[in-house]
C-alpha cells in the first residue's frame, strides 16, 4: 500500500515532468521554502548548521531520480561552500555561475556535469497562499541554446511557474510546508493546530492525540512562542497565514 507521501511525490514529479518537456529542460528540482531564512534561523550561531538542515530536507521534489540524487549530492558536498546558494535566497532569479578550473576533479560544476547538466537557473516564486513562503524552481539545463531561450522568455516562464506552483501548493502545500520540514513546527503540533481551528476542545484534542490536556497546553504554548501569537485566536490566524492549516 502506498504511503501518502509516495502519492504526493509521484504527483509533483508528474507535474514537473510535463513542464520540463514543454520547455526542453533537462530536469527540474522544486520545493516550498521560507521567504526569510534569517528570521527563522537567526538563533543558530553557525551557518553550517543551517545549511545542513537545508541539505537534509525531506520535501524536495524533482522531475527524475537523477535530478533528486544530484540535488542531494550537491547539498551534502557543496551547500556550505557554494556562494550561489546565498544569492538564491536574495534574488528572484539566479543563474548559478562557477569560476573554477575544469581540470579540477572536485568542484560543484564538475559534479553537475557528471549528472548530465551544464547550467542551473533558480526562480524564487512568491506563494499565493502565504507571504511567508516562496517556491524555488531550479531548472537543470544541458545546453547553452536552451539556457539562452529560457532567459529570453523569462517573463512567460515566470508566469507559468507561478501557475505550476499554485496548482501544486493548492493540493500539497500544507503537507510539504517548510516549517514542518525544518521541524520548526512539529507534525503533532500542526495536527493540534488543525483540530483547534476546527473547533475541538482541549479535552477532545487530548483524547484524539493520546495526550493529557496539560500536554496539549504545552504544544499550544510552544506554537504561540514559535509564531509569536498573543492568544489562541491569533495563533489560528497566524497558522493560516503560514499555510499550516
Automatic annotation (TrEMBL):
GO biological process, one term: regulation of DNA-templated transcription
InterPro entries reported for this sequence: Sig_transdc_resp-reg_C-effctor, Tscrpt_reg_LuxR_C, WH-like_DNA-bd_sf
Domain of life: Bacteria
A molecular function (GO) term: DNA binding
One Pfam family of this chain: GerE
Domain HTH luxR-type: 185-239
Signal peptide feature range: none
UniProt name for this protein: Transcriptional regulator, LuxR family protein
Annotated organism of origin: Shewanella benthica KT99
